[in-house]
Design goal:
The chain is an alpha/beta fold. Helices cover 38% and strands 17% of the residues. Helix 3 runs parallel beside helix 5. About 3% of the residues have low confidence.
């Protein structure tokens, strides 16, 4: 009898705590019922201390792993506009924001276990080795947290070479170009909102390691975590379809770090 096939596992994460009101106004409560990891805004691109606390408390009640979602100091642009910060400034910003969320988390009886940069900082880290090293330095400074980084990006190699544990991420609700990079949000169809299509893509990435790019080509992609953006229209429905489809495909959902 052949040996049993290895069990497929994946993390399901969402970016949360980005609404101005109580958890649930933007669907965070519903998302936290479905995900295994939650990347919580640190009060800079979005959120505030009260929202951070409520979000962490809600995640902790559900056993969801808490991660920090730091960004450029650009609240007006929701952290999605490029900023010319020197590497030392990037390190300082990430340390400051992660420390702020971790203080909240410890007050809620838990702690921050990983870091996923937000928006323009996330994209710069993926391509810019100096920026990726600056983020890695911040993680080492705050206590050796894991980094959630785009699959196939330079950030993975740079952070790992610095001694940082890295988990790779792919997006179920975003379109990819043929080069494996996310299609810019300015491109029509870059944000996907059809639950069936989003779930199908998630299963394709996890089970088959394939995703269809915007030009119709198939690209190889593997990731240890699948993301559904908390601010994507219908995010809770998307996450519910993704979770259900993965489970039906025999995939076990587990956080990538505990």
């Amino acid at each position: 009898m052949p040996p049993p096939l290895p069990q497929l596992t994946v993390d399901l994460n969402a970016d949360v705590g980005e609404g101005a009101g109580p958890v649930g106004d933007g669907g965070d409560d519903a998302l936290l019922d479905l995900v295994t990891s939650a990347s919580v805004a640190c009060g800079v691109h979005a959120g505030d201390p009260a929202t951070m606390r409520r979000t962490v408390e809600a995640a902790t009640r559900r056993g969801v792993v808490v991660g920090a979602h730091p960004s450029y100091p650009d609240r007006e642009g929701f952290g999605r506009r490029p900023m010319d910060l020197a590497p030392a400034q990037v390190t300082e910003e990430v340390v400051r924001q992660v420390a702020a969320l971790d203080a909240v988390a410890r007050g809620c009886g838990t702690r921050v276990r990983y870091v996923k940069p937000h928006g323009a900082l996330y994209h710069r880290m993926a391509e810019d080795a100096q920026c990726a090293r600056a983020v890695a330095d911040a993680l080492l400074e705050v206590g050796g947290l894991a980094l959630l980084a785009p699959t196939g990006s330079r950030a993975v190699e740079v952070a790992e070479s610095a001694g940082v544990r890295v988990a790779t991420e792919a997006f179920a609700d975003r379109a990819y170009g043929p080069d494996g990079r996310l299609a810019p949000r300015t491109v029509a169809g870059s944000v996907l909102t059809d639950p069936v299509e989003v779930a199908r893509r998630a299963v394709g990435i996890v089970v088959d390691h394939q995703v269809t790019a915007v030009d119709g080509t198939s690209i190889t992609m593997a990731a240890s975590s699948i993301c559904v953006h908390g601010d994507t229209p219908g995010a809770e429905m998307l996450a519910r379809h993704v979770r259900g489809a993965l489970e039906r495909a025999g995939v076990t959902l587990l956080p990538f770090v505990t």
